[in-house]
Amino acid sequence: NAGVTQTPKFQVLKTGQSMTLQCAQDMNHNSMYWYRQDPGMGLRLIYYSASEGTTDKGEVPNGYNVSRLNKREFSLRLESAAPSQTSVYFCASSGLAGYTDTQYFGPGTRLTVL
Amino acid sequence: QKEVEQDPGPLSVPEGAIVSLNCTYSNSAFQYFMWYRQYSRKGPELLMYTYSSGNKEDGRFTAQVDKSSKYISLFIRDSQPSDSATYLCAMSAGYQKVTFGIGTKLQVIP
């Protein structure tokens, strides 16, 4: 039981390049989330998926797209990376929709955009 | 004003001390309250979860929620160097969206 896994762990991009961050969970959770964490800003929600087949914008969605591939997998895509997207990205999942919002986090992806 | 306010610290205490970490919030609809611990260069991990007001104890950790004051606390008794981490409060009104504090960095000095 790996919980929430993320790939890659580290990535360096040049401005304008694209990439996809992958996330998978093996807890049979319905909901999945993408956050970014920046110093002094805390965790900010980029996108979330309440259930397979649905996605919704969070607090800071501009410059990102997501795909809920199936119940296990939720990917985050940067189409044209910008230095402002340098951050640590966390994927999370939660199980019982509407009752508890306890989220379980992956180890993070450290992204630097030059 | 942010929905959730948390002092970022850092907070340094000697080993064995009682640590008090706090958050205030403005959204009276919040009813689920959580504390996460985040070690350096790791993802947050759930430490405590409480629903509505009251206290919850788990080993050396006690979480308190005072909804009338919109104030939550996490107490750590007999603090250990292994407790050195950033502690994030988090809260939700339900419907899966969780609002996090920015985290308080704690250092427990041996």
Q: Overview of this structure, please?
A:
The complex is a heterodimer of chains A (114) and B (110). By secondary structure, chain A is mainly β. Chain A is 0% helix and 51% strand. Chain A is built from no helices and 11 strands. Chain A has strands at residues 4-7, 10-13, 19-25, 31-38, 42-49, 56-57, 64-68, 74-78, 87-94, 104-105, 109-113. In chain A, strands 2, 4, 5, 6, 9, 10 and 11 form a 7-stranded mixed β-sheet that branches. Chain A has a 4-stranded antiparallel β-sheet with strand order 1-3-8-7, with no helix packed on it. The radius of gyration of chain A is 13 Å and the shape is globular. The N and C termini of chain A lie far apart (36 Å). In chain B, strands 2, 4, 5, 9, 10 and 11 form a 6-stranded mixed β-sheet that branches. Chain B has no helices and 11 strands. Chain B has strands spanning 4-5, 11-14, 19-25, 32-38, 45-51, 54-58, 61-66, 71-76, 85-92, 99-100, 104-109. Chain B has 110 residues and is mainly β. The chains are: A mainly beta (114), B mainly beta (110). The A-B interface holds A 4, 31, 40-43, 45, 48, 50, 58, 90, 94, 97-108 and B 6, 8, 32, 34, 36, 41-46, 49, 88, 90, 92, 94-98, 100-103.
Label this structure with key terms.
heterodimer, A: 114 residues, mainly beta, 11 strands, B: 110 residues, 6-stranded mixed beta sheet, 5-stranded antiparallel beta sheet
Radius of gyration of chain B: 13 Å
Strand content of chain A: over 45%
SSE order of chain A, as H and E? EEEEEEEEEEE
Q: Strand portion of chain B, in percent?
A: over 45%
Q: What are the segments of chain A in which pLDDT stays under 50 over at least 5 consecutive residues?
A: none
Secondary-structure blueprint of this entry?
The complex is a heterodimer of chains A (114) and B (110).
Chain A: E1 4-7, E2 10-13, E3 19-25, E4 31-38, E5 42-49, E6 56-57, E7 64-68, E8 74-78, E9 87-94, E10 104-105, E11 109-113
Parallel strand pairs in A: 2-11
Antiparallel strand pairs in A: 1-3, 3-8, 4-5, 4-9, 5-6, 7-8, 9-10, 9-11
Chain B: E1 4-5, E2 11-14, E3 19-25, E4 32-38, E5 45-51, E6 54-58, E7 61-66, E8 71-76, E9 85-92, E10 99-100, E11 104-109
